[in-house]
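Dear support,

I submitted the protein below through the web form. The confirmation email said the job was done, but the results page showed an empty box. After a refresh the structure appeared. I'm attaching both so you can tell me whether what I see now is the final result or a partial one.
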Amino acid sequence: MALALVWVVVSLVGAALILQYLFTINVERSARDNMGAAVARLAASIVPGANPPAIAEPMPDPRYSTPFGGRYWQIEAVDTGAVTHSRSMWDQSIDVPANYEGVFYQTGPDNRQLILLTRQLRVEGAAGPQAFRVTVGEDYEPIHRATQAFVQDAGQLLALLGAAILVAAYLLLRLGLGPVSRVRQAIEAVRHGDTSRLEGKFPSELDSMVDEINGLLQVREVMRDRARARAADLAHGLKTPLAAMHGIADRLRENGNEHDADLLQDLSFEMSERVDYQLRLSVLRPRTGSDNASSSLNTAVLRTVAVLKKTSRGEDLHWVAQLGTDCAVDIHRQDLMELVGVLMENATKWASSRVVVQSRLEEDSAILEICDDGPGIPDDHSSQLGERGHRLDESLPGTGLGLSIAREILALNGGTIAFGRADLGGLMVSLCLPLSRLDPREVG
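What the results page shows now:
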């Protein structure tokens, strides 16, 4: 539209200038034709031998006889230099360039701009041929006013024409790009997870592109499902050997071999935890820079608290949710539930009696803090939390993979995590999540 606007304005301004030039040329041509006819009439009326020059009859146009009437004539005898001019010239004369014939411009009576035509003639008389310079002119002001009026009328017409062209260009762009907009909306629906392929009616010109995109989406979906299925098959395939290892450990313990039984049981437990870790990572949604999501932070926290309060450990804890104004964060709701879940499970595991969850807004980010009144960690060990498989306390069961899953989710979604000491005395986990760029009404 910007290019169309520039092109239309330049074209119409150029057209206005050309039309003004053509109109002026045609008006001046008409004036020259009238002056040529007046020169011919004067030539026919010159009295031969008269000194100064004279005409046999006055010009029929009364403007020649009215002072400053707008039309003028002058006859000059070339041999004697005697000059006769119309009454409209009053007491002034026209300064004609020597040996010049044709049209020229000059300031005339009452400082008016004149357009003039001069011709050199030879008139036969009793004493022989006599040379005269005949000049006829008229005011240029009427030509100028006519040109201005034409430009004003033409400008209004061209302005209306330009507006009509711009409206037509806008409608053409809207209609022409409408199918592309529908493709963009369909792609956005795929990004948001509302559908798995481009759906809708598209013009035949875009069928090939839509088919290619749907083919790529189908291949991606198939590959993702295969990867998840293989991970699930691997997990189920390992359950039987792991169960057998538990049985072997029990028999070793019954036979009095406590050391080998504990070692075998610890190995099987760690393998189970790692399999579970990989399964949980396999369901995370990959993100791209142009992929937008929107999920309610407060909803995810309240749902997680409701679930954990029903567990045997959660029933014994006092839960406090100090949540600010609800906001939409740029993360898929499934990933957000997983993220909040693993962090609050960790707080549930280590809390003595109380877990406090707080949320607030800071510029273009949402801050979520999860605090417990457990033993906490030394300040110099906070950087080690979340490292895969690394645990600072071996007194409770687990592999330390929950915080590692949280780091993986935040890495996919552009968030950050920090650890510190809570006012309750335990661990404080602080999440910083980017706000969603989607409409708040789309919060999931």
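Response: this is the final, complete result; the empty box was a page-load delay. The CA atoms of residues 174 and 181 lie 9 Å apart.
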